[in-house]
Specification:
353 residues; nine-stranded mixed beta sheet; two-stranded antiparallel sheet; globular
Length: 353
């Protein structure tokens, strides 16, 4: 009798300790609790974007040791390894296979004067190879955070190269490119880290792209859109090119916000987020019906992809050796990075879009 009593007690205790087994499989969260969790994850990601991180990235990428990050040269390769190290640290996987780099070659007819124009499309390369020509070995850097849906993709990108060094320039001959475009790379790195540390699985897959050869004619983004098998799945492209400058000293919060004009929600998102999070930004909203000029967003527009381009406009240091890290408006760069993280969050998660 004593044995039976002990067995009954043990059975009862085991049943109390295992309520999930008695009740069957755990039920999914309610839509309300899932929404609250996603909101907390968004806030956690936003909190990782800091002015100190912005300074750290820009001061490294625009240091003299990188020699202006000219495409195909040593400084550019160092910049790529820095970017790859940040992707690895955040746990963001390569987009293709086990390597973060997407190699490609660019060709141009040999000329003894300025005006060399490089191409990456197969037809042009075939013609160029018939003559004396130049070649550059380049590579984009690409990482991915898989979403719940693999049939819809958002791409966030910035070009990593700049003008390099000019031996015949008197005095400072390094074109450091702090604003153009260490600032843009910094924004994408901060957005990437914010998503990685939020713990959220986005609805749509997010690709983080760092383009090579932009200064030679948008080479990296052109190659990508022409060879990415899933280009028809891209729901939007966010571009960052020069987002740390001071075009209007009288208004240090000024920035320019280009977007495809058939998507007015892009403008509404930014207005709402600036108000909700008290971001110190004064955007000039510029819906654009044919956004092909100026930077890498043009490559995506030509493939029918809606675009957003964060920009702080040309400024006195543009394409000058004086484009140094100490000229960057870091509070503005930080708030642009925060705003663009929120924009990316909308693009990646808003099912109504």
């Amino acid at each position: 009798m004593k044995v039976k009593t002990n067995l009954l007690c043990m059975t009862a205790a085991f049943a109390l300790a295992m309520p999930a087994c008695a009740a069957g499989p755990a039920q999914p969260r309610s839509p309300k609790s899932a929404t609250k969790l996603l909101a907390r994850q968004k806030e956690a990601g936003l909190a990782t974007i800091t002015e100190n991180a912005a300074r750290a990235h820009v001061y490294f990428l625009a240091d003299d040791l990188l020699e202006g990050r000219r495409a195909g040269q040593r400084g550019s390769r160092i910049a790529k390894q820095y970017i790859i190290s940040r992707l690895r640290e955040a746990g963001v996987k390569p987009l293709f296979g086990d390597t973060y780099e997407q190699p490609f070659q660019a060709y141009a007819d040999q000329k003894l004067k300025r005006g060399v124009r490089f191409f990456v499309d197969a037809d042009s390369i075939a013609q160029i190879k018939k003559h004396v020509h130049q070649r550059m070995d380049l590579s984009n850097v690409l990482g991915v955070i898989p979403g719940r849906r693999s049939d819809e993709v958002v791409v966030v990108g910035a070009h990593l190269d700049h003008e390099g060094m000019y031996a015949d320039v008197a005095g400072d001959n390094i074109y450091n490119g702090a604003d153009d475009n260490a600032s843009g790379v910094t924004a994408v790195l901060q957005i990437m880290k914010a998503f990685a540390e939020s713990g959220a699985t986005p609805e749509r897959t997010i690709v983080f792209a760092f383009w090579d050869g932009e200064e030679f004619g948008l080479l990296g983004s052109k190659f990508f859109v022409n060879h990415y098998a899933d280009i028809s799945k891209v729901k939007g492209y966010l571009n960052f090119d020069m987002v740390g400058g001071n075009n209007k000293p009288e208004d240090p919060t000024y920035m320019v916000y280009f977007y495809t004009d058939t998507h007015p929600a892009f403008g509404d998102w930014l207005k709402d987020d600036i108000n909700r999070y008290s971001l110190k930004l004064n955007p000039s909203y510029r819906p654009w019906d044919n956004p092909i000029g100026g930077s890498d967003q043009g490559s995506f527009h030509l493939k029918g992809v809606p675009i957003i381009w964060y920009h702080t406009d040309a400024q006195p240091h543009y394409n000058q050796p004086s484009d140094e890290p100490n000229t960057i408006n870091y509070p503005k760069l930080t708030d642009i990075s925060r705003a663009s993280f929120l924009t990316t969050w909308h693009l990646a998660n808003d099912t109504a879009y």
